[in-house]
């Protein structure tokens, strides 16, 4: 499941804070729980669409304050294969400083989707256990929860997602 960010919260003068909205924008439901993340990704419709270049991904864009163009990407962990639109951390130990910084920043980016899963599990108690129904009905339940999750965020994000329930990042204001 992918999520996106966007809501600003007031913080200390001279600082800004980006708080995520944790909306789901894509979902792959129905894979057996015994299959690894990488195995599930291999069967995912989004992966197939990315491989065929049929996903409406925005054109490469410049990094902030640079002329370096980069593609839009999905952030992933070690279980996934590296590709143009899928970033994963550098593996192993003995990484140089740039690789460690990259891994740290990628980990920060992954928190957005992990927070979305955490909010879903906290708000919809069905996710606290094995879903006691058929796989087809379980898929419908999960997708319905994702739709309700997005709807409730759009109605009142501050009420649905209290500030203490997600990670926030205070970023020094540069002027």
Automatic annotation (TrEMBL):
Record-annotated DDE Tnp4 domain positions = 24-150
Q: Which GO terms describe its cellular component?
A: nucleus
Gene Ontology MF terms: hydrolase activity; metal ion binding; nuclease activity
Per the UniProt record, one Pfam family is DDE_Tnp_4
InterPro entries named among the record's database cross-references: HARBI1-like (IPR045249), HARBI1_dom (IPR027806)
Please list the cofactors this protein needs: a divalent metal cation
- UniProt keywords, alphabetically: Hydrolase, Metal-binding, Nuclease, Nucleus
Q: Where in the cell is it found?
A: Nucleus
Which family, according to the similarity comment?
A: Belongs to the HARBI1 family.
- Return the PANTHER family for the record: NUCLEASE HARBI1-LIKE PROTEIN (PTHR22930:SF269), PTHR22930
* UniProt name for this protein: DDE Tnp4 domain-containing protein
Q: What is the lineage of its organism?
A: Eukaryota, Metazoa, Ecdysozoa, Arthropoda, Chelicerata
């Amino acid at each position: 499941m992918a999520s996106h960010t966007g809501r600003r919260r007031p913080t200390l003068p001279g600082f800004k804070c980006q708080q995520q909205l944790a909306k789901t924008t894509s979902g792959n439901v129905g894979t057996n729980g015994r299959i690894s993340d990488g195995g599930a990704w291999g069967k995912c419709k989004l992966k197939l669409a990315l491989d065929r270049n049929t996903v409406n991904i925005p054109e490469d864009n410049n990094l902030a304050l640079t002329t370096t163009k980069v593609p839009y990407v999905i952030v992933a962990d070690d279980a996934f294969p590296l590709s143009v639109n899928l970033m994963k951390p550098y593996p192993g130990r003995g990484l140089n400083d740039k690789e460690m910084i990259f891994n740290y920043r990628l980990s920060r980016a992954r928190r957005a989707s992990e927070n979305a899963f955490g909010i879903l599990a906290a708000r919809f108690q069905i996710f606290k256990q094995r879903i006691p129904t058929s796989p087809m009905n379980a898929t419908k339940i999960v997708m319905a929860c994702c739709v309700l999750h997005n709807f409730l965020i759009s109605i009142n994000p501050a009420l649905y997602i209290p500030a203490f329930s997600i990670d926030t990042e205070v970023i020094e204001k540069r002027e």
